C-alpha cells in the first residue's frame, strides 16, 4: 500500500498492510532483500486519534433547555431537526456542538465514510476529527451539483460527504429553492443517484439533516423582545422558500427563543457534551441491538426504520392511536408525519430505557411537529 493510504487500509479486517514509499522497496521486499513492517489496525491514525476532541462544549450554552433536549433526541435516533429563532439566540452555536455529542461511528459505518472521502479525493486523516462522524456545513450559495454530487466525472456532493453524520444547513431560507428541492428524495432513501454523460452512480447519503433559520427576514417575528418590522407578505414569501414536502421530512421543529438578560448574566447551567454523549450512546446501543438482525440496514438507527420495522417496534395502544389520530387531524399532518412521529417517540422511549412507547413519549414527539403548522401556514 502507498504509505499515505495505509492508515485507511489497516482498518479492513483480515488483511496485512505493508506501507511502502516506492516501487523499488516493493521489488526488494519480494526478492527477500529487505523487511517491511505490517501496520497493525491499532496503530492506524484513525484508531489512535483521541476520540471526540471537539473543543466546543454544550456546557457553554446558556438556557435553551428545550433546544438541547430536541438536539439530544435528534442525535440519539438520527432524526432531522430544524431550529427557528431570532438572531443571536444560539442556533449556530448549538449546531456546531452537535459533533461533540455524536457517538463514534461503528466500524462498518466508518469504512463507508472513508470510501466516500476516497472517492471524492479528500484525505480524511488531515481532519483533526478524522475518526468522528462527519459534520458538513455548506454555505448557502452552494449549487445543486455541490450538494447532491455530479460534475463531469460524477463524484460525491455534500450530502454524501455527510453520510452517517450531519448535514447542517444554516440560514435555510437563503439556500436556492431548487437546491433544497433536490434533497427531498435522497433524504428519504438514504442514497442518491447521479446521472451524467460519463455514467451513472449511486452513492449512500444516510444523513441527519440539521437546519437553522430566523422566523422572518428581520428575524424578530413572534419574539418577546424586539418588534418585527416585516409585513405579512414579506414573512410569507420568506417562509415559502422552504417547501411543505421538505418540512414534512423534518421530524423535530424547535423554537430557540431570544435569551433573557437575566439568563445571559448567569453562568451556564446546562450539562457538558460528555454527559449528553453518554446518553446518546446508550440509546444508539439499544437501537443497534434492535436492528442487529436486519439485513442490509447499515445505519442502525430509528430514523431509518422501514414500514415493517415501524409496525414491529413502534406499537402503540388503542388510546394512544386515537390521541395520535386527533393530533394529525388538528395539525393537518401527512401520512409521512405519522410514521416520523412514531419513530421519534421510539427514540424518546429508548432514551428513557422503556420497552413500550409511553403516552408522554408520544405527546412529546407530537409536540415537535406542531411548531411548523403555526409558522408555515
Ligand atoms: N444560549 C446562548 N448561550 C451562550 N451564548 C450565546 C447563546 N446564544 C448566543 N450566544 C452568543 O451569541 C453568539 C451568536 O450566537 P449564534 O451565532 O449561535 O446565533 P444564531 O442564533 O445563529 O443567530 P443568527 O440567526 O443571526 O444566525 C454566540 O457565539 C455566543 O457568543
Ligand atoms: Mg446563525
What labels describe this entry?
single chain; 377 residues; alpha/beta; Rossmann fold; five-stranded parallel sheet; two-stranded antiparallel ribbon; 19 helices; binds adenosine-5'-triphosphate; binds magnesium ion
Overview of the molecule:
The protein has 377 residues and is of the alpha/beta class. The protein has three domains: 3-48, no CATH class; 58-265, Rossmann fold (3-Layer(aba) Sandwich); 299-376. Helix content is 43%, strand content 10%. The chain has 19 helices and nine strands. The strands form three sheets. A five-stranded parallel beta sheet has the order 2-5-8-1-9. It has a two-stranded antiparallel ribbon with strand order 3-4. It has a two-stranded antiparallel ribbon with strand order 6-7. A hairpin with a 4-residue loop joins strand 3 (149-150) and strand 4. The chain is globular and about 80 Å long. The model has no long low-confidence stretch (mean pLDDT 87). The structure holds adenosine-5'-triphosphate and magnesium ion. The site of magnesium ion (MG) has 4 residues, from helix 5.
How would you classify the quaternary structure?
A: single chain
CATH class of the largest domain: Alpha Beta
CATH fold naming of the largest domain: Rossmann fold
CATH architecture group name of the largest domain: 3-Layer(aba) Sandwich
Helix content: 40-55%
Mean pLDDT: 87
For the largest beta-sheet, the strand count, sense and barrel status come to: 5 strands, parallel
**Which ranges are low-confidence, i.e. pLDDT below 50, for 5 or more consecutive residues?**
none
